[in-house]
Amino acid sequence: MPTRSVIRATVRAAVIAIAGGALAFLAVSALVGPSTETVRAGGLKVTLTGDPVPDGCKPDDCSLREALLDSTGGETISFSIPGAGPHVIQPTTALPGLTDSVSIDGYTQPGASPNSAAPWQPGNASLQIVLDGSSVGGGNGLVIGGTSVIVRGLVIQNFPANAIMVGAFANGSIQGNYLGTDQTGTVAAPNGGSGVNVHGANTAIGGTAPADRNLISGNAASGIEMAGEGPLLIAGNFVGTDVTGTLALPNGGDGVLLRNGPKSLIGEADPGAGNLISGNGRHGLTMEGPGVKEVNVRGNRIGTAADGTSPLPNFEHGIYMALGAFDNTIGGVSAANRNTIAFNGGDGVALDVTAGVNNYLDPNITHSNVGLGTDLKDDGVTLNDLNDPDTGPNDVLNFPVVTRAEVVDGLLEIEGTLNTIPVPFLPIFIFANSECDPSGYGEGERFLGEDIAEGIGPNYTFEATIELPVFDGEYITTSASNPQSTSEFSECVAIVGAPTPTPSPTPSPTPSPTPTPTPTPTPSPSPSPTPIGDPRTWGDIDCTNGVNPIDSLKVLRTDAGLGNIQPAGCPVIGELVQVDGDALIWGDVDCSQALTPVDSLKILRHDAGLSAGQATECPDMGSQVFVVI
């Protein structure tokens, strides 16, 4: 029998290489040229909404068509159209393309302002320049024909083809636009093709800053379509929803359609990098073709509203792979890397029978989809076969069989088996679920941890003791990787001996720091809030009653995507906890909304007796706080 391992949320060494994803994220951004905040030398100023016969840009007499024709490398096309906006520009024929290093910036129009809302919050941009293609006989809204082109701050609607086309051998940054809606972001104004159609390489759509968020919704085809060489960066966008992220404005096809683009990044762990891909008329994300390889999909919400918990389903699957797509990674062990894939009209993740292998479905939050959590061959549950000789998408890897799930002395003990071809390394992912899929086979609602199966193939076993809390009525499911290809989820197994959830004795539905008990009169306000939860020392992330270098090391390991074992009852590093009514990340000691080496440095400085300045309303390092897990 294998040795039972005590786990919370560990990660296998083979995934360490993927930790470079954040570096790749920055590398793609660097390829598309300078920041969108850069003002290039020279410039042309659009002052007319009309589309007269081009006669050259003149001061106070310049149409958009004239500006595009006259622009040269390094110039910015700005706007200063008199009168109250929004200003609607209706070209009568297709507009000229954007050439090398030309920027077009709708936020230069007086009265316009970019989005400043935090990630996942309703957008608050004010766009004042609307390009309307209702009078164009055919063609795209804007065509990026050169390199390092920047398009920002525009509403592009009602064009016969795509809102923005990125041509072959071209690239650029597309940030802070509304593509396929009106200027309020609440009404569809469809372009006949996709919001963005990319045939080039090294293009960034969105970014991590609030001002970078695009709203790409309401288009007749897909929100974003990629057929070029890649890589493509898609980050921080709302695709298929309205500006609030609470209502659907469907793109008629997929939210994002990748037909090519190796090493592309769709979301990332960095704050603000995740995309909301919901409400679309087909799949949330389609990845099809042998050129779709080494793509990382992380930190996105697919099928939910912006809050990550309310349903806003894509009509079919959350993610769909086909036609040889291979060697891709969906999600990650750290909480920031996991995608939430829920409420979709089909499966959470479906691999068509034509999909390739080595598609690694790292732990995600997968629940409440109409179909399965993961479906190999897109045909419902694929039952295990003896010794696993079959081939197909992800090698149609057998799923684990859970033989025991029991709480003993407050700890969850898991045992199981897996029958598959001999491999050197076989991770088992373990999940808790509030309900079982109607098929009897699960999804992955809450990631509990990872174990490594032991044995000599084809017969393996696994045993694990899990310290994270589970409750009566929950079910355990598991999946396996070999280690590149991931299986479907196992059959649901009810947890034996789990405690019944106990309501908090002093529930506080409001953010008041002093909850009011109903049975007895509330005492007069005192200088200290009523303690809630368990006392903790801010910075002591492993709950050992001391802020020390071990805490610092654990922050660094989590930031690098490596695992950490926490003592029983101590919050998992990277998870949200409630501190005085505020949701904070455990380990994010400076409350910057992310685990970074800065947190580690502050812990070390505090341990050495040096000062460590904190953000406003962030607990002081070393101070005692009350944590509700």
Helix content: under 10%
The biggest sheet amounts to: 10 strands, parallel
Structural class: mainly beta
Reading side by side through the largest sheet, how are the strands ordered?
Answer: 2-3-5-8-11-14-17-20-23-26
Mean pLDDT equals 87
Estimated share of beta-strand residues: 25-35%
Task: List low-pLDDT spans.
Answer: 7-41, 506-532
Describe the structure in your own words:
This protein is mostly beta strands and 629 residues long. The strands form 6 sheets. The protein has a 10-stranded parallel beta sheet, with helices on both faces. It has a 10-stranded parallel beta sheet with strand order 4-6-9-12-15-18-21-24-27-29, with no helix packed on it. A 9-stranded parallel beta sheet has the order 7-10-13-16-19-22-25-28-30, with no helix packed on it. Helix 3 runs antiparallel to helix 4. The two termini are 34 Å apart. The relative contact order is 0.09.
Keywords:
629 residues, mainly beta, ten-stranded parallel beta sheet, 4 helices
Indicate the topology:
Layout lengths: L4 E3 L13 H11 L12 E3 L17 H7 L5 E4 L7 E3 L13 E3 L23 E4 L9 E3 L4 E4 L2 E3 L6 E3 L5 E4 L2 E2 L16 E3 L4 E4 L8 E2 L7 E3 L5 E4 L2 E2 L16 E3 L6 E2 L9 E2 L7 E4 L7 E2 L3 E2 L16 E4 L6 E2 L9 E3 L6 E4 L12 E3 L6 E4 L23 E8 L2 E9 L7 E7 L12 E7 L1 E3 L2 E8 L8 E6 L12 E2 L39 E4 L11 H11 L16 E4 L2 E4 L11 H11 L16 E5 L1
Parallel strand pairs: 1-36, 2-3, 3-5, 4-6, 5-8, 6-9, 7-10, 8-11, 9-12, 10-13, 11-14, 12-15, 13-16, 14-17, 15-18, 16-19, 17-20, 18-21, 19-22, 20-23, 21-24, 22-25, 23-26, 24-27, 25-28, 27-29, 28-30
Antiparallel strand pairs: 31-32, 32-36, 33-34, 33-37, 35-36, 37-38, 39-42, 40-41, 40-42
